[in-house]
Amino acid sequence: MFPVAFHPIYKHPLPEGHRFPMLKYELLPQQLVHEGTVSPNAFFEPGLPDLQHILGVHKKEYVEALLNLTLEARAVRKIGFPLSAELIERELRLAEGTRIGAEKALQTGIAFNIAGGTHHAYSNRGEAFCLLNDQAIAAQYLLNKKLVKKILIVDLDVHQGNGTAEIFQHNEKVFTFSMHGKSNYPFKKETSDLDIALHDHTDDSKFLEILENTLPYLIQTQKPDFIFYLSGVDILASDKLGKLGCTLDGCKKRDEIVFSLCQKHEIPVQVSMGGGYSPDIKTIIEAHANTYRVASTLYL
Asked: N or C: which end of the chain has fewer CB within 10 A?
């Protein structure tokens, strides 16, 4: 069974306006265990990270301001959460969960973070509920430890991975690929190594066609020995913050394409959950659970 980072600290109280989006972090593990997709002993609870791993991609001044709760009010507003010690601890453990998961994936082939996908966090600032860029931190850690030589980041969230693009803009060992809604946040995009901006209401057929034509080519040309996959389910037509037109089945087939290619080419993959903001929490849980169901079928 593949390892999954679990974060009980998400149960800490949040302001009312932020409560609903966080429910999935509590409900998804319960659903996965209830249906037998993931066994209870597959979950691991990450501790606090070595700050040197965080400083591998984030500026020291920014990290210190987070830890000391001294960010300027304007910077806090861009993040979207009120700053607190509990929030910072949560973000640190989240990043550590992805780092540990990346190490575990080298042995198991695949590992998940029940949260993560904080791709709007830049090297020197946070945005859009993202404070520390979990997959960027883990990617740089693998490179620093010489555990891998070339990394491909596959970001299929509806929003462009602007922070990830900025962090690795001059790093030839990391190829950033973001396929996202053209008219979605962020409205000022950064430049990934490959950006594919999709028109509003792009449906399953077009989305999957583009992915099937692109990802095999990237694997062939970039020859990554590790993949980070951001599996946001805000590509659904029902999503409140997305503008694409994908269905639950299309979202599931997207995951099948990614995981099948990773298996075919024997490339370890770490998966972070990313966004999902449909009005019905059942839709969000079903879409995220499908990602784990696909993996449980392929990675027996």
From this structure: C
